[in-house]
Amino acid sequence: MSIVISGATGQLGRLVVAALLDRGVPAEQVVAGARDETRLADLAAQGVRVVRFDYDDPASLSAALTEGDTLLLVSGSEIGRRVAQHQAVIAAAQNAGVARLAYTSALRAGETALAVAPDHVATEQAVRASGLPFTLLRDGWYTENYATALVQARATGVVLSSAGDGRVASATRADYAAAIAAALTGTGHENAVYELSGDHAWDFDELAAAFATVLGRDVVYRRVSPEEHLNLLVEAGLDAGTAGFLVALDGNIRDGALALTSGDLSRLAGRPTTPLVDALRPLT
User: Fold this and answer.
1) How is domain 3-139 classified at the CATH fold level?
2) How high is the pLDDT of residue 31?
3) This prediction's pTM
4) How far is CA 79 from CA 51, 58, 132, 150, 274, in A?
5) Which among 88, 122, 87 has a CA at the least distance from the CA of 105?
6) Is the pLDDT reported for residue 113 higher than 90?
7) How far apart are CA 35 and CA 51, in angstroms?
8) Are the CB atoms for 50 and 44 separated by under 8 Å?
9) Rounded Cα distance, 265 and 182, in Å
10) In the chain, domain spans
11) pLDDT at position 79, please?
12) Which of 7, 184, 207, 281 is in Cβ range 3.0-4.6 Å of 74 for a Cys bridge?
């Protein structure tokens, strides 16, 4: 029986593998799966079993799973296709008889208007319908999502957003990976739902101040309306669809969709989440 991590070439999946090894899970009991397993040579060198795990190739999914495994399904990135991809993984897990299926979902899935939530809600429904023991790991926002904004602030001294007074309880990917690894290895996590988020919900004035600290220059928060934000993004070269999506996300933040501080993440990880300034320093 192994712990199988899908999407192991991704930023989160790779960190979960590292967190499992840090927790003392023997490398031979960890399976790292990816569409292109040749990109996992560094993990193979550590004794981790690497396999092809392509959400679009059911045969690769079946070959990677065995009865009694614990499987982490890291959500795919192809919006519009990922529900079907996730369903293929769930079907393979059923057929293999895995002991538990964990899924990285979205914060407060099922009751949030978050723009990214619908695919996660559909996947959660499929996970529950599978009859397999499950753990739903509802991830909030990554602090690393603001790397581009940090670069822009270095150049302009401005954080521009239509999020208003909204707050974000972000945490680092490493924070999430530590919590996920704990849920994969510990007991009492069957059929559990965890709302994972940072310990502190910051607002964009705090984000600007944190940028100023790590950049060593003045940074201010410029509030704009959704309409102005959309126009500015399009003028900057983004296509209308991407620009609209980003403005919608800021609207979700403005409405409180990412402000939840449940404490689940730090409880699972066994430590506080990384403070905003400390999380931003590696991005400079």
Assistant:
1) Rossmann fold (3.40.50)
2) 98
3) 0.96
4) 24, 19, 25, 26, 29
5) 122
6) no
7) 9
8) yes
9) 10
10) 3-139
11) 80
12) 7
